[in-house]
Amino acid sequence: MTAKRIGILTSGGDCAGLNAALRAVVHRAIRNYGWKVFGIRDGSLGLMNRPLNYVEFDLKSVGDDMLRLGGTILGTINKGDPFAYPMPDGSKKDRSQDFVDGYKELGIEALVVIGGDGSMRILNELCRKGGIPMVGIPKTIDNDVAQTDYAIGFATALNVAGEAMDRLAPTAASHHRVMILEVMGRDVGHIALNAGIAGGADVVLIPEIPYTLEGIAKKIAEVRDEGRNHALMVVAEGCKTETGESVTTLQSGGQARYGGIGQYLAARLAETVEAETRVTVLGHVQRGGMPAMRDRIIASAFGVYAVDLIAQGKLGRMVAWQHGQVVDVPITDVAGITRAIDPYGTLAQTARGLGIYIGEM
Ligand code: F6P
């Protein structure tokens, strides 16, 4: 009998823990089932381009250093939807058939996709089109993939944001300042709210809960009245202005990305709050670096389970972390859905209970 051949790719923005997941998939597939594992480079591009761009993994190529290594050794893309691929002349072209043909050319029998909600949606559509059996593994520092409590990368990003709070607190106190920390998270506030609670913030703003400038100013005045001469504030990049506009900056290639809400708020607060304010934008520091232990563990558990799903013929599923264990859910229940903070859930109530201003419902 010939060995089963499976492919694996990473798609969307990178994060810490991706290599740990790759390692786990390769170990389980080779050690337990004797399969061949092909790593596809640069997300879907590796199957769209000719010649195909891939590497065959063996156990030697996925040593324990993979646990410690940030980013993804396979490379990834977060633009270039194969159904609307951006061409050099600015037009969009449907290149989905190139992907399907590439899959057939490589002769693999199932695909493991490590991605966020957007990648799950696109890859799921691609796989449906090509009749490709797919299993998904959730990753994103934003932690917004539906049906899973944790996505790979979140724990590391949270540690980075928490450490930033620890570093900002003493300098805020020394200079009697209001420090605003702007964190990533796209349209959700998981990093912001968790880091705010863990880091002792006075104000946490997240896209899920509206705020007022008066509310923030009142909280800062309250802090001063309680005898503290500095305050810490965390704002999620996806928060809108109080009049409902997103704050974005144009990146190379004409791509708009969130960024700047911290500076915006600092300028607005200067009108009402007397204290000096400084802004720190954490940015991609949250995505890189050595993965947190939690991410390594989740990534390893996801990788092993994903291979077992393929072995059991359970396809079209995504592995998920629920109530302390790995389970699997239909990808169609996840694809393109964003898991937001529940404004009345445990974390929001905890923040309110601690006296943190998190906006007004
Ligand atoms: O989705 C992950 C994420 O890091 C978001 O938190 C952030 O808004 C975005 O990606 C940044 O994208 P890019 O790496 O393209 O600048």
Automatic annotation (TrEMBL):
GO terms for cellular component: 6-phosphofructokinase complex. Its main location: cytoplasm. It holds the Pfam family PFK. It is an enzyme of class 2 (transferase). Its EC number is 2.7.1.11. The record marks 118 as: Important for substrate specificity. Substrate binds at residues 140-142, 177, 184-186, 237, 278, 284-287. PROSITE patterns: PHOSPHOFRUCTOKINASE. This is ATP-dependent 6-phosphofructokinase.
